[in-house]
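Chapter review: from sequence to fold.
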Amino acid sequence: MTRILYIEDDADIGKLCEDDLAERGYIVHWLKSGEEALSFEENVEIIILDVMLPGLDGFTVGQRLKQRYPHTPILMLSARSSVDDKLYGLQFADDYLTKPFHPDELAARIEVLLRRIGQITESDLEIAHLKINLHQNQILDRRTNQEILLTGKQFRIFMYFLRHPNQILSKEQIYEAVWGEAFIVGDKSVMVHIRHIREKIEERPGFPKIIETIRGLGYRVRQ
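The token string follows.
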């Protein structure tokens, strides 16, 4: 049975969603704060996260959860419907649903995310000479069958590219998604980490073909 981590502080909305999802056959772990969510240690297949939470807000919690569980889809819920809020949430989350919503729409969004992650994790990804096993968080060089070892930050950056295939990602987007902090103009952390990643995964790091530089915009990994 599919397990859902559901973080919502509104008792009425939380009870409604918990009961509806339970009737649909899901196992729901309903928590009421971001702090509870960050201390939760059981495995789940999907995370549903409200933006407006007491204490840590949903954006902060979501970024930290995505760092910890890069392959677990996150569905954001919020009454904040501005384009800026949605774009900010979608830097790390996999979907964004605006309140109020019908339970049928929530269930449909969950099913789409589960199908998507199922398609991704059913088989290994292959990019150029790389074979990425998402179940084991393992990257292999198919030419030598040797494992390529990335540091934690390097791996999270690379996974962020894989979750956003063919998209041009700016340094700001990457930094805020992986570090979970606001980007400071002039910070070279992303550039340095990507250089080190290229040294490990590219055939010719000086002429990268996996992590492309899009001048003036950012970086992109094609799939």
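Two observations follow directly from the output. The two ends are 31 Å apart (CA to CA). The first helix runs from residue 11 to 23.
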